[in-house]
């Protein structure tokens, strides 16, 4: 997720106290006619819903359908690739038609694609078809991100962008609540209460409930596209948008050259890639650990409980941690706090090690373990993003170089996700979570030696 001649009205300044006409409140300004409030929340929610369904929820679905942990984590992690490399094809999206055109096309294709996934689940070789469709949808979803960010950046002036920044972030975070929380919960409820299948048994019986889930997501996405057809502005071309394929290729090549000419660039590349190494190993396996039977070393939770814990308590903890982490950095400065933030990201992973050793059946303890890990992840991750903005990105292609940094992080999450399931099967949960703790060491090293060449 990133981030848009302005048709939106600027926020009016407060009137003097002697003026009998009251000034419009911030809330009224945000909801006046033609406001971005009509399309910013829905646009960023649609982006997040697509991303979470493809890169997170699919892993749970694969697990439910009977895949082992290695395959489920591997296939779901491959879908991160398109989002990782989207800076490579972003300049070409700038060249043609309007950004709204790409948003609408992407959302319609995503909606039809999810419906096609649901229909394909009735076919004999549904898994091959489904994985292929997910791969196509990940490319379309990444394009949706590029175009939606482009509308936001080019259709709004800087003051309105600032005004809606919090709305943008909040709307994106509703996506994980609906996808990882609501849809996973609903899949479990349908499986046990509507289709009357046994919750803890994985296999083809889960097709019935997941087919409904994909039809629901398809409907939401298509309705969102129709809504944006009516209310979303066209989005202007950026001033530096390439005018030809050759120019786009030159800009992309030049951005790579200047990126690797930065001072201490390899230390910064190492930081961007390794900072979340342990999180990448934990991201897919954590939910698998929750739903695997106790006999296999898991906690034996249902999809309903998994959706509730990760989609509500876990996400609330992340948001609260991010807020407090931002305040912490703002007060003390990034250079003084970066190593502390790295500790916050990595050390609380020990909660999963402890849960794998003791396998608690108390839901309060399990919720607390997940919430602690997620809170400190949110708290510490703020430092990672600020470092990319302030130290890695500055230069001739600030936005592109920032995207390179987040792309390196995405590449780490993909690589670790691909191998995580296979490693867990080889080691078992207890030894695997020991490996996760060992993987924090490279994060500590790159953070300790991370260079600071720009003033905060």
UniProtKB/TrEMBL annotation:
Stretches that traverse the bilayer: 38-60, 72-89, 101-120, 126-142, 163-190, 210-229, 265-285, 305-330, 363-389, 401-423, 429-450
Protein name: MFS transporter, PAT family, beta-lactamase induction signal transducer AmpG
MF annotations from Gene Ontology: transmembrane transporter activity
Region of interest (Disordered), ranges: 1-23
Domain of life: Bacteria
PANTHER family xrefs: MAJOR FACILITATOR SUPERFAMILY DOMAIN-CONTAINING PROTEIN 3, SOLUTE CARRIER FAMILY 33 ACETYL-COA TRANSPORTER -RELATED
Biased composition (Low complexity): 1-16
């Amino acid at each position: 997720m990133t981030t848009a001649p302005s048709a939106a009205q600027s926020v009016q300044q407060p009137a003097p106290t002697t003026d009998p006409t009251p000034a419009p409140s911030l809330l009224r300004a945000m909801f006046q006619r033609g406001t971005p409030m009509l399309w910013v929340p829905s646009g960023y929610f649609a982006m997040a819903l697509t991303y979470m369904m493809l890169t997170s929820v699919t892993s749970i679905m694969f697990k439910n359908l009977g895949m082992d942990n290695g395959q489920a984590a591997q296939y779901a992690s491959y879908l991160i690739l398109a989002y990782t490399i989207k800076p490579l094809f972003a300049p070409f999206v700038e060249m043609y038609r309007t950004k709204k055109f790409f948003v609408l096309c992407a959302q319609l294709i995503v909606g039809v694609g999810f419906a096609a996934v649901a229909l394909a689940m009735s076919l004999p070789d549904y898994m091959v078809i489904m994985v292929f469709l997910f791969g196509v949808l990940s490319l379309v979803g990444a394009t949706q991100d590029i175009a939606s960010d482009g509308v936001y950046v080019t259709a709004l002036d800087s003051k309105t962008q600032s005004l809606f920044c919090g709305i943008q972030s909040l709307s994106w975070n509703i996506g994980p609540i609906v996808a990882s929380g609501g849809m996973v919960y609903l899949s479990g409820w349908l499986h046990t209460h509507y289709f009357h299948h046994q919750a803890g048994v994985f296999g083809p019986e889960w097709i019935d409930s997941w087919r409904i889930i994909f039809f629901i997501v398809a409907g939401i996405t298509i309705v969102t596209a129709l809504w944006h057809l009516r209310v979303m502005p066209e989005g202007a071309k950026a001033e530096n948008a390439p005018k030809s394929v050759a120019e786009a290729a030159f800009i992309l090549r030049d951005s790579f050259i200047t990126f690797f000419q930065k001072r201490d660039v390899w230390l910064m590349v190492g930081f961007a890639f390794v900072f979340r190494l342990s999180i990448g190993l934990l991201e897919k396996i954590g939910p698998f650990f929750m739903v695997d039977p106790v006999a296999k070393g898991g906690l034996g939770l249902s999809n309903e409980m998994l959706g509730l814990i990760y989609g509500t308590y876990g996400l609330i903890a992340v948001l609260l941690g991010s807020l407090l982490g931002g305040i912490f950095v703002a007060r003390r400065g990034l250079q003084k706090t970066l190593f502390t933030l790295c500790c916050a990201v990595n050390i609380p992973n020990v909660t999963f090690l402890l849960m794998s050793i003791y396998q608690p059946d108390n839901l309060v303890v399990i919720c607390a373990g997940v919430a602690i890990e997620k809170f400190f992840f949110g708290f510490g991750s703020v430092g990672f993003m600020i470092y990319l903005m302030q130290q890695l990105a500055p230069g001739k292609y600030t936005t592109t170089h920032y995207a390179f940094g987040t792309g390196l992080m995405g590449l780490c999450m993909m690589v670790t996700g691909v191998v995580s399931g296979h490693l867990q099967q080889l080691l078992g949960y207890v030894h695997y979570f020991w490996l996760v703790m060992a993987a924090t060491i490279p994060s500590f090293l790159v953070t300790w030696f991370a260079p600071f060449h720009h003033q905060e």
